[in-house]
Amino acid sequence: xxxxxxxxxxxxxxxxxxVILLTDLTVGQERxxxxxxxxxxxxxxxxxxxxxxxxxxxxxMDGRKFFVNVHLPxxxxxxxxxxxxxxxxxxxxxxxxxxxxxxxxxxAFATEERFPxxxxxxxxxxxxxxxxPLDAFTALAALTHxxxxxxxxxxxxxxxxCFYVGALGSRRTHAARVERLKASxxxxxxxxxxxAPIGLDIxxxxxxxxxxxxxxxxxxxxxxxxLKTEAEAGKA
Length: 236
Description:
MoCofactor_Util/Proc, elongated, XdhC_Rossmann_dom, alpha/beta, five-stranded parallel β-sheet, Rossmann fold
């Protein structure tokens, strides 16, 4: 790997952006490409699939072989609310490879005893997200039912183009939430990205079942995310 490619990969890693190291195995030439960058027509589908799946592979085109080596940031899951669903979600998220963190200013809930081995911020989301900004490879799940806690991170997640934004609550609760977010300046299109009620419709009832539904919906959103939107956000 040449030094310019290494610098580009390190910069992307630091910024939590997806890139591919595309190597022409026939002549040994390589370049780093980001979502939305122009590539040869015969490679476009393979590059898009690599960004979506996170799987590297060798591709043949016109008698030449290319190694599509994809580098994706590890997906993060930011949960707003140290609640029972969060307790069930934590070990599941770890199993599927998500770096999960919990934010909840209610110190009676946000305790190490309830959430061992999970990064826990017993602070207001406004304070935490100043130093730990959201990005396109982050999922945010708001679970407190309290607009004073949930609304700010929901807005920030939409503005940061998080690949998944979900909120717990009934349709009536969400209707009121929509009006508050509109008043804060968000468009109907932006607000429409919120998954509410949160989670896949599997009839979940217990906290553990709700956690399964939420995680399934997050995984689906990650694998089906709109890479054009991500590319536009990265160039903004």
